[in-house]
């Protein structure tokens, strides 16, 4: 069976269109209106995706240091729970994940000061650096996707998940940069958000079910391996 978390990471980015446009739409629109043209827009979003991917790889490396059955089970349960939570968050039925944004705001302040050095970006290099900084902004969707990516316990897999998340944000952000109002309207529709929220919650429920079904076997196999040692 295909791991649902890769699709989930993309869906979180896509479904968070309204959230993304609210938090980053201003800078995206400014880039689109700038004299430096589409090259700067592409450089900025490339920097954002690079930032997300690097964060995912670091998270996967950190969680992969511990390799026990109990830790792996905990991370899988966490992944399923986060999928459910993100579905509720995107559907605006529960805003519990907003605490991540409040926590991240403290970490964002020094980065924000650094990012201001490249506003407005006059060259593609400045836009890349600005995008790298903007990937660290206090956003509950970013942090939730990062926590989900960390459950993969592998730098490559976790980095790929965050790259997928970044790809999911591109339609909304590019629409903001290029002034595609019809696409922005589509991505903000309540029905679209509810559809993706339902898919995320279904993926979360399935992840929890599969984890619970195989937990006994995984723990027994781990215990048997330790006994042989």
TrEMBL record:
Keywords: Membrane, Transmembrane, Transmembrane helix. InterPro entries: UreH-like_TM_dom. Pfam families: DsbD_2. The chain crosses the membrane at residues 74-94, 127-150, 156-180, 192-212. Residues 8-206 form the Urease accessory protein UreH-like transmembrane domain. The keyword Transcription regulation does not apply. The keyword Transmembrane helix applies. PANTHER family: HEAVY METAL TRANSPORTER (PTHR42208:SF1), HEAVY METAL TRANSPORTER-RELATED (PTHR42208). This is Sulfite exporter TauE/SafE family protein. It comes from Parahaliea mediterranea.
